Amino acid sequence: MPDFFDEMYADASSSVRGHYRQFAAWLETQPPEVINRKRAESDLIFRRVGITFAVYGNDAGTERLIPFDIIPRIIHAAEWAQLEAGLVQRVQALNMFIHDVYHEQAIVKAGVIPAEQIFRNAQYRPEMQGIAVASNIYAHIAGVDIVRAGEGDFYVLEDNLRVPSGVSYMLENRKMMMRLFPDLFARHKIAPVAHYPDLLLDNLRSVAPLGIDDPTVVVMTPGMYNSAYFEHAFLAQQMGVELVEGQDLFVNDNAVYMRTTRGPKRVDVIYRRIDDDFLDPLAFRADSSLGVPGLLSVYRAGRVTLANAIGTGVADDKSIYPYVPDMIRFYLSEQPILNNVPTWQCRKKEDLEYTLANLSQLVVKEVHGAGGYGMLVGPASSKEEIALFRQRVLARPDGYIAQPTLALSACPTYVESGIAPRHIDLRPFVLSGKTISMVRGGLTRVALQEGSLVVNSSQGGGTKDTWVLEK
């Protein structure tokens, strides 16, 4: 048997799991030339629509198409129900934690989380201390990264609470599959995801400042050179709201306004896709040309809602991640439904010693890292790479955590040699407002290189449509 959980096949005899059987029977009847034609068609359409991401670094300024695989990842209804319950529980506790950090700090006083882990955290914003935010919601949109390992158990790998991206690919992947293979959707009862923009808009409107009955919502982007600009424009268009940059907004009389051809229009809710540091040059980075001078003062006064709130990053930092199960117990008096991946915190002497002694077997990550950068995958690294990374960890132990190298679950995927298993993860999107809601689906990312565990698009990963069966 393989040393990973196979989403489609149950054992070494290649018996198909029950919820994949209809799809597997269909797949066997598809001639290779038909599949190749469909794959080429999907690439062409994605390029025409402009579904690309910008590349930073050596290839700066170029655009890449994120590879799309036409074999879906299918999740059984009962499995999804457990996953959804765990996600709702987790995001509820994270929102309570962020509110607590910026108000009573009860979890620190109780000794559950060391004070220095919060107040020396680079994502902690003292400017948010004591600010009342609408409905006490900070992480309005959370993208929680889920992996399966062992016998198929779900684990939370990461909580993305600042400006989580990828939902546009979830939506476009579904549209593509429905266009290419409409007969498949007649054979399966697949939960819809197309209503996500409506759900998002309702969620954003629900957290408007007190007394605003018909709020004006905008999506705020850093601009067309941002790697996720397609998504910013896509979501604004799908919600029927304006896409704005900092230069399109201004503060006057303790309110935020948008410049329009008909004159200034007050803005009540800003779905911002800009990092905290660049939001207001008067409060954060003075050299920022992306933000709105005075925005923080309006936010402090409760006259505009920012989604996600300033300072949410204190809860999605990898050094805080190990404490999320404790948050659930502390705030909700419940046992966590979803497990964390076991984590060693290199700031702790014993954990650092263990990490350094086992670098070749572990995944080591920067606590502020993202996108697959700033990490070491021990089993896939050379002795020289491990030696260099050891020096980086020794120079700043509190900047790193370590985790076991999980055998991520795999799903059949079209590659150059044909159909082969490739490792995957899942990013569902959880919306918090008056209630906590989510569509039944998410972004499945796939590591296209054989044996690779890194699914990020910036590292050569691709995406799949995610089907949650309704029964």
TrEMBL record:
InterPro entries: ATP-dep_Glu-Cys_Ligase-2, CP_ATPgrasp_2, UCP005522. Transmembrane segments: none annotated. Residues 72-447 form the Circularly permuted ATP-grasp type domain. This is Circularly permuted ATP-grasp type 2 domain-containing protein. It comes from Noviherbaspirillum autotrophicum.
